[in-house]
Amino acid sequence: MSFLLGFFLAYLIGVSGIGGGVLTTPLLIFLFSLEPKDAVGTSLLFSLAVKFLSSFLYLLKGQYEVKVLGLLIPSGVLGVILGSNLLPYLSLNERLLFLLLGLIVVISSLLNLLGRVEVNLRRGRSVLITLGSFLVSFEVGLSSIGSGVLIQTLLLSLLNLDVKRAIGTSLIYGFVVSLFGGISHLLLGNVDLVLLRDLTLGGGFGVILGAYTTSFV
Predict the structure, then answer these.
(1) What is the DSSP letter of 88?
(2) What is the rounded CA–CA span in Å between residue 91 and residue 35?
(3) How far from chain centre, in Å, is Cα 215?
C-alpha cells in the first residue's frame, strides 16, 4: 500500500507542483496511524525525494524563474528551520493539524477565486513574496503543508507567470525547504524510516510520469 501511495502522491506533485504535505501528512495519519510529528517529518523527507526528481526535470526544461527563487529561498530556509525546531515545544495533535490543513485549503481557494492581485510597485511585490515565503515555510516546518499549494498560489496571484514556470519554481523552492525541514525533523527523530523507504520507491516512478504529463495537460 505504501508503494502505491507513494506513486500516486508523487504523480500529483509532478503534474501540479502541489500535494507533498497537504495530502501526504493526513494520509499517513489515517492509513498508517503515525503520530502527527512523525507524519510531518516523514512527509517532508518524502517530499524532498520526490521534489528532487521533479525539480531536476523542470530545471532541464528551463521552466523556472531564477529571480523569484532568489526572493523565495533565503526567507524560506530561515522559516522552515525555525518552524521545525519550534515543533517539539508545541502540543501538535490530529485536530490542530487538520484545522491547519483546512485553513490552508480555504486560503488558497480564496486567493484563486480572487484572481491576480495588482501590485504596481516592483518593490512591493518583492516584499510580499519574501514575507509570504517566510510565513509559508515556517508553517511547513510545523506541519509539512503548504510549500506547493500556497507558494504556487502566491506566485500566480502576484506575478504574470506561465503555469508551467510557476509549477517549476514552486517545486524547486519546495525541494530546498523540504531539505532543511527534513534534516531538522530527522535530527529530532520525527521520521518513520521504513515507511519513508517504501513511499520513496513508489514516488520515483510517479514523479517522472507526472512531470511529463504536464506537456499534454
Answers:
(1) G
(2) 12
(3) 21
